[in-house]
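User: Some background: our group keeps a shared notebook of sequences we're curious about, and every so often someone picks one and asks for a predicted structure to add to the entry. Today it's my turn. The entry only has the sequence so far, pasted here. Could you supply the structure so I can complete it?
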Amino acid sequence: MIPSEVKGEVRVFAQVDRDVEESCDVVVVGSGPGGAVVAKELAEAGRRVVLIEEGPPFTPDDFELEGSRSMTRTMREGGLRTTRGYVMPTMQAICLGGGSLVNSAICVRSPEKTLAAWCNDYELVRTSRADLDPHYDAVAAFAGVAPTPENVQGARNLLFKRACDALGYSSEPIARNVRGCRGSGECFTGCRSRAKQSMDLCYVPAAIRAGAIVLTSARVQLVLADGSRATGVAGHFVAPFSGRPSHAFRVKAKIVVLAAGCMATPVLLRKSGNLANGSGQVGENLQFHPGTAAMGVFPERTDPQFGATQGYQSLQFVGEGFKLETLWTPPGLLAVRVPGFGHELKRQLAEIPFSAEWDAIISTNRSLGRVVLRRSGLDPVLHWSFHPDDFQILVRALHVLVEMLFAAGAKKVVHGVHGLPDEFHALKDAEVLRTKRIGPTDIVCAANHAFSTTRMHGNPRHGVVDELGKCHDFDNLYLADTGVLPRSPSVNPMFTTMALAHRTAQGIAGRI
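Assistant: Of course. Here's the predicted structure to add to the notebook entry:
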């Protein structure tokens, strides 16, 4: 029950003219899919909540359609963050709503077999699919999760279905958290129609209506603690885009929830005195879904800019370690995968209206990395490398993409593999993917799904949090982002993270 006199609010950088101190029941750091769910559920349960986000809020007037400029405004490190070891771009958002503002709204439940393996391998007793389904259901009902309808698929997505049908592969419209999607293909740069139910449009406003205070452009720099209890957080307000520090803030709380992302949360814990790290696992076990893509060029126009950004998928090969999806990105970013220079590049780009690009994301459970602190600042150094067996799954997935594009009627396929002919003109040309020695540096990869740096585990010696997201070493410190996933969820991680956050919020509500 929400008291009628409770009023929430959102504060932006321009409103801050002095140091700020707040007290609350629960302070939540991070407004992405994990933190926003926790904040809304606890505020609606009558708890006093302060939600803190380092980035600013965005409106449609703030969105930039040009991909690179959009990235500099909405992504950490200007969208140029990469791993070391194997150099791979990885993008994390810095804005109200977190990654949900710039992702494709994909909401897929982790397969039953994947969650059963989690339970078996990480000593979990209540994280089966049956355990999580009620939480998936609650999130789906609130956020409008539903399969992408055919009228907003566009040719690029429907060709994917044609390919799967021709080859006998399973496929389905992707379930997404949208309401009234127009198929404008602008998910990555911000949904100007406001159809995508990103956290800044659904969960954060609901938290505010229930009385939560939301501080934006507020960088948490320290988790305050007294023994085995967290007492709050402290930091500075920072100017949007430049990060210039301004006035200080301090929030005292009975419960602290970190949902800053699987890279920022370990940094905060380590910078705050190596908190909650009795297991030595904070910042370890960094995993990704490396993705690769192929672009088919068709005889007829596909106008790929129209249609849901990612509207169709195939789970046919999830058991083999990869998931297939449709894809659209702004042309300036798409050009990264297009071969040639000068007139040749111009010729290739002129074929985009006749193209379809599809991608594969890989469950690299054997490829591990680390989040390492820098001497100054909160941006980490990311060490990660491909395990040879995981890389072979990626090569296999690329071959399947090529096969599918030709099955859909493509006249040629651009694959992006260094050392091979730039284009395949028939499926037999792709046999070279099976016969030639190809290394990780030969394929253009990117990975925006990252997880497991503060993994859950039933044994406190091997994990950072328990199944409710509570740190094993602390009485009142919880984590609620993708870092708690013990390993790959086999599919896009947002929906599972939200379901776990919903469960975490229920656990916290039962304590205070």
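Suggested note for the entry: The chain is about 25% helix and 20% strand. The chain has a mean pLDDT of 96.
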